[in-house]
Amino acid sequence: MTAFRKYIDIGANLTDEMYQGIYHTSKKHEPDLDTVLERSWSSGLCKMIITGGSLTDSKKAISMAQLDSRLFSTVGCHPTRCNEFVENPETYLDGLRDLIASNRDKVVAVGECGLDYERLHFCEKDIQLKYFEYQIKLSREFNLPLFLHCRAAADDLVDILERNKDNVMGGVVHSFDGSLEALEKILSLGMYIGINGCSLRTKENLEVVTKIPRDKLMIETDCPWCEVKPTHPGYVHVVTKYPSVKKEKYSINSGNQVKGRNEPANIVQVLEILAAVRNENIDDLAEAIYNNTSKLFFYDK
User: Fold this and answer.
1) Can you name a GO cellular component term (predicted)?
2) pLDDT tens digits, one per residue of 261-276
3) Which of 196, 156, 154 is nearest to 175 (CA)?
């Protein structure tokens, strides 16, 4: 049945250097993004959203998306990158604005934006709060949903979204790994919830994902990160497994994946875990998730 399922990866960091064979500035193998994409399309992916985490990242994401009709992008500034706003906030926001305006066919969300209180060493809390709220206005301006990041910051995220509800045209909190209480607060705003391997790392996570209404659920990989690992409690439910080798031994045409580097093709593993722990028919769940994603991001595409 897998071949008949359709997937949309809402969070793929395809501009990351790992897909150019570079790991921590060291080249380990030849660029293989084309191979990764081919594996993805043949595994049932029909669209992918490339994450833009800064003005520079967003430009790269759009350039990549222009190469294939199935690729799209977000435009925004990640909470850990919000220091980039500080020198000249208006100029930076105008840069994001111009990028969206000139690529309306490819940009499907404002983001990745939000709050990350687990990595305040990259950007202090006050700056994150200020410039998350500052860029929200782009949602209404371009009638685009928000692609949201939230780490240990649900209360403040919800407060800001509530305060700016007239400027928020829907959205998804991606890579969600919060508590049931956090889930309920986010759902009360009408937001969707994006689930990946990082969302399924603990037994509590597996409990929480069973509480997400089917019509508010989306899946993603957040590749090259957030893979489902054998140490995760949900791994016992993974049916689809791909051979992998260490990056130093990887060759492009081997049919292997790179060990420890996630790919869009692995999105099926997230679906398999969700279907198992939620006790739902996997094909029905896949169809519902596909429809949710199409409704939020591709209603006019």
Assistant:
1) cytosol
2) 999 999 999 999 999 9
3) 196
